[in-house]
Automatic annotation (TrEMBL):
Record field: transmembrane: none
Signal peptide range: 1-27
Lineage of origin: Eukaryota, Viridiplantae, Streptophyta, Embryophyta, Tracheophyta
Record's protein name: DUF538 domain-containing protein
Record keywords: Signal
UniProt cross-references to Pfam families, sorted A to Z: DUF538
Amino acid sequence: METMFSSSTFLLFFLVISPSFIPKTICLEDDKPTAYEVLKDFNFPIGLLPEGVVGYDLDSSSGKFSAFLNGSCSFSLEGSYQLKYKNTIKGYISKGRLSSLQGVRVKVFFMWVNIVEILRKGDNLEFSVGIAAAGFPLDNFEDCPQCGCGLNCNNEKLRRIRKNPFLSSY
């Protein structure tokens, strides 16, 4: 009986200290995908989030998510689109759709408005501020912008953001 106890104790000890025996279906914290990888899993480009996301929460059953930055973040794109991210961005994510967004604002003319929804439509992304929406080609979002300087942080030639010429209103 003592031999069986010793064998099972040894086996338990071996399994605990040997990570190679942990089944692949168990998700360890170190193996958790990044927020950028989660965006890709839902058919979005990584450039929807600025560099520096330090963590996120995702309820896979409801799609409710929160992404966390070190602090608030703002930058200009092309010198004309000004964006602000709060330190926490919240909403719901599903394939090709981010809805009920909170924490992302864009300056339209002289007013700051919340971006409330982002839809993937083929090779375009449509950003909605509630009463109006604007479409942009997907390849504008291949790179993550940096807080403070956006996509032109190395004083390189100004990168142009292509816009879909149509602005729709609801």
